[in-house]
Amino acid sequence: MSAAHATFGLAPAMRAGGVLVNGAYQVHRDFMDFIVDGHPLLHQLADLDAVSPLASDVPPAIFTTHVRRLLLEAAPPLPDGRYVIYGCPECEGLECGAVTAVIEREGPDIVWRDFAWQTTETADLERDGYHGIGPFRFDADQYRAELARLLPDAGAGTGAGTDKIAGDGSEAAYGADGQPLRRRVLLIGTRVAVLAKLAAALRTINIGAEIAEDADRVPPVEIRTYGAVAFGRTIAEHEKAAVRAAFDRAGVEPAYVEGLAPIIPLLVAQIEHALDRSPMEQRRLTRLVAADDEAGVEVTSACRVQLVAYRQDRLHRTHAQVVFEGLLEAGKHRIPLDERATRGRSFIVARTMGGVLVTPMAR
Question: Which of 85, 110, 180, 334 pairs with 188 at a CA distance of 20 to 30 A?
Fold first, then answer.
């Protein structure tokens, strides 16, 4: 391959959902990100909350159309040969804004060029162009081979659409590696009121959730649909061991979450982190520690980071405060926190456009 070529790949990524401080909800989205020369293309867009068109919850026919467009086997959706690379995670409306680019053949190559931010049918490259991104020249054979893996006719277990059936009879999303996304959570606990609120919040942000006292009565075919198990704080160790044994018998290894406190946004953030399937080397937010009213944060590329402090007072009322929000450059950062927001037993949630981390405040 010529030195002028960039490598092209795909990798699982997610837009983390959550319950925000103002009470609003942010929807969870799983999608395939574009990997250019080993790095997620989305990471070059430091302050963008967006997903690619290759999202797992897109209907199969539409998903296939998106893939065939990128393969230049279907007409571009926008004038001047422009294709949507990243769009709004909440809807598909162009008016919300999208990153677009021209995709074209040049001899034996596929070229992505003229990246721009677009909110109308035509792009103004002088005003809205991403002048520091691209052009990228890909070897056509490698490019097509990567995208073709996502097509339903590429072979069983290689589609990333929603054309398979989960154990509960619903459609299940599959990634390009052929593995089910298992975007469902089993909640194990005795505090039914808290669990019901947590399940409702998870369902609102596009994550399935069911409540049970244990896993003994859950059929193996259904157990295999869960990507995470969340334990309440009152669950004994022998009860946790029994749940783990039930999943072992079903041949499934979910992520296990130990609930830190009965604070719904905090628990949602813990579960979101547990469901993150993106490769560790391609995550933006990689480290979070908090001690003595200071947070340590590490990011792998420039991005906007928000830190929220959660705590409960003596009357079990929940308090939440945004203690930092800003654009951080790649590297390690020490961020002072408001001691009034972190007094007592408190927790810090760090959120970027692509992930979330949670940690208790150490004293």
Answer: 180
Residues 25, 137 within the same domain: yes
Q: Please compute, for residue 82, the number of CA atoms within 13 A of its CA located in the half-sphere on the CB side.
A: 23
Burial class from Cβ neighbours inside 10 Å (0-12, 13-18, 19+) for residue 216 reads: exposed
For 123-156, the pLDDT digits (tens) are 989 999 998 898 999 999 999 999 999 998 765 4
What domain range includes position 247? 182-274
Reported as type and span, the H/E element at residue 332 is: strand 331-336
Q: What pLDDT digit, counting tens, does each position of 38-93 carry?
A: 999 999 987 889 999 999 888 899 999 999 999 999 999 999 999 999 999 988 78
Q: Which residues contact 122 (CB under 8 A, 6 or more apart)?
A: 78, 79, 80
CB neighbourhood size of 130 (10 A)? 17
User: Are 253 and 302 members of one domain?
Assistant: no
Q: Are residues 81 and 19 in the same domain?
A: yes
